[in-house]
UniProtKB/TrEMBL annotation:
Protein name: Extracellular serine-rich protein
InterPro entries given in the database record: Cupredoxin, Ser-rich/MCO-related
The keyword Signal is annotated on this UniProt entry: yes
Gene3D superfamilies per the UniProt record, alphabetical: Cupredoxins - blue copper proteins
Organism of origin: Meripilus lineatus
Keyword terms: Signal
Keyword rRNA processing belongs to the record: no
Signal sequence extent: 1-22
Amino acid sequence: MFLRLAFSVSLLLSAGLNTAGAESQTVNVAPGNNGTEPLFVPAHFDASNGTSVLIYFPNVGPYHSFTQSSFDKPCTPLQDSENVTIGFDSGLTSATEWELTITNATIPIYFFSKGPNQCGQGMVGAINAPQNGTGSYDEFYAAAVKLNGTAITVPDTTPILTGVGAAATGPPRGLGERSDLQFSVEGFMPLEGYVTSF
Ligand SMILES: *[C@@H]1O[C@H](CO)[C@@H](O)[C@H](O)[C@H]1NC(C)=O
Ligand SMILES: *[C@@H]1O[C@H](CO)[C@@H](O)[C@H](O)[C@H]1NC(C)=O
Ligand SMILES: *[C@@H]1O[C@H](CO)[C@@H](O)[C@H](O)[C@H]1NC(C)=O
Ligand SMILES: *[C@@H]1O[C@H](CO)[C@@H](O)[C@H](O)[C@H]1NC(C)=O
Ligand SMILES: *[C@@H]1O[C@H](CO)[C@@H](O)[C@H](O)[C@H]1NC(C)=O
Ligand SMILES: *[C@@H]1O[C@H](CO)[C@@H](O)[C@H](O)[C@H]1NC(C)=O
C-alpha cells in the first residue's frame, strides 16, 4: 500500500527538456502515484547526451526498480536477438538513489519498475521517445497497462550498470542522512496533480 506523504517531488523538468548546448544537466525521477496507480514522476522527458538521471527510491512503501525494457515488451527487461539481457537495471531497491548518464540521446529509452504488478499498473516511462505515434510514451504506457495482471514477474538481479543509451557508474547508493527525506531536497518542486508514494 502506498503511504501518501506530501513530498516535494524530485523534478527539474526544465533541465531535461531544454538542453540545447547545455552542460551537465540533471533530471530527478521518483516513484509516485496518482492516488490509485503507481507511476514514475516524471514518466517521460527528453535528456541530451551526458545528462544525469537521478532516481530516488523512497525509504518506505513498496520496493521499486528502474529497469530498461523495450517499446515492444514494456514489462520485460531489454534483450538482444539472442535473448541476452542488455538493459540497465537498478534491481529492486529502497532508501537509495541511482544515477544514470545518458550515453546516446538518439536512442529512445523505455523503462519500468519490476515490483509486483507495478508495470501493468502503469509504472513505466520513456526518455527521448517520439512525441506521438509509434514509440511514444503514450503508446508505451497503453501497451504496459494491457499487461495489467498478466505481466510476468521479473526475477530480481544485482544491478546491471550498462544499458543501451544510458549507463551508471555504480549501483544504487544509500541516502544516508537523507533517507528521511520527507522530502525537501533543495531545488525540487512539487508536481501538480501528483503525490509521491513512500
Ligand atoms: C490514475 O491512473 C489510472 C490509470 O490511468 C486512472 O484509471 C485513474 O483514474 C487515475 N486516478 C486519478 C485519481 O487520476
Ligand atoms: C527468445 O525468446 C523467445 C520468447 O521466449 C523465443 O521465442 C525465441 O526462440 C528466443 N530466441 C532465442 C534466440 O533463444
Ligand atoms: C547512437 O545511436 C544511434 C541510433 O541507434 C546509432 O546510429 C549510433 O551509432 C549510436 N552511436 C554510438 C556511438 O553508438
Ligand atoms: C550522442 O552521443 C552518441 C554517442 O557518442 C552519438 O552517436 C549521438 O549522435 C549523440 N546524439 C546527439 C543527439 O548528440
Ligand atoms: C490494474 O488492475 C487492478 C486490479 O484489477 C486495477 O485495480 C487497476 O485499476 C488496473 N490498473 C490499470 C492501469 O489498468
Ligand atoms: C507529432 O510530433 C511531431 C514532433 O515530434 C509534431 O511535429 C507533430 O505535429 C505531432 N503530431 C501530432 C498529431 O501531435
